[in-house]
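Need a sequence for this fold. Nothing fancy.
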């Protein structure tokens, strides 16, 4: 880490390498950043901002189901191909878009370009997102009393059972949409 360098770009291909290597690269970055921050603090210097971009190339027709869950202090952006297939009869392109939609729970980018925020949110499949993220959300909760490991395990099992039932997921989705709509009305947002 030299003071004049502020950006590190790490290109990752999960098809050619293990996802563990990508997580390891993130770990090395975090470790070096912390070491650099300590050094700068010791020397009384001002810590210039350092940035890292992990550019993960995911192809639509890849059968690899990849998930990267960076900590909250990391911002992340998903860039989807925004073009349609070259011809309407391109079945491979349709299959690729369907697979990407299934893997990411997001519709193709072109479908996300129009509509209100609530309409856009309703295009996202919330159930897979809820099922994959609820453990992390539970882990971040602050409880007013001490929770035992057994209590937390029971909570995780119950949430997993609730979210595996489509009726419960549907009720939760409806409530989330209602809360978002209410918040937007209070905030005066129109889009």
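Here you go.
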């Amino acid at each position: 880490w030299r003071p004049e360098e502020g950006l590190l770009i790490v290109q990752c291909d999960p098809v050619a390498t293990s996802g563990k290597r990508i997580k390891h690269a993130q770990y090395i970055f975090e470790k070096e950043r912390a070491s650099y921050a300590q050094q700068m603090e010791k020397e009384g210097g001002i810590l210039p901002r350092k940035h890292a971009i992990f550019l993960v190339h995911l192809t639509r027709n890849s059968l690899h189901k990849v998930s990267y869950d960076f900590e909250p202090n990391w911002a992340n952006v998903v860039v989807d191909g925004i073009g349609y297939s070259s011809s309407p009869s391109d079945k491979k392109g349709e299959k690729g878009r369907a697979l990407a939609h299934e893997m990411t729970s997001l519709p193709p980018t072109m479908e996300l370009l129009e509509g209100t925020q609530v309409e856009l949110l309703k295009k996202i499949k919330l159930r897979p997102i809820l099922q994959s993220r609820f453990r992390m959300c539970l882990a971040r909760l602050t409880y007013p009393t001490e929770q035992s490991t057994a209590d937390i395990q029971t909570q995780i099992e119950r949430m997993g059972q609730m979210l595996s039932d489509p009726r419960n997921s549907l009720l939760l989705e409806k409530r989330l949409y209602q809360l978002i709509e209410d918040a937007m009305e209070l905030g005066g947002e129109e889009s």
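For context: Residues 101 and 145 are 41 Å apart (CA to CA).
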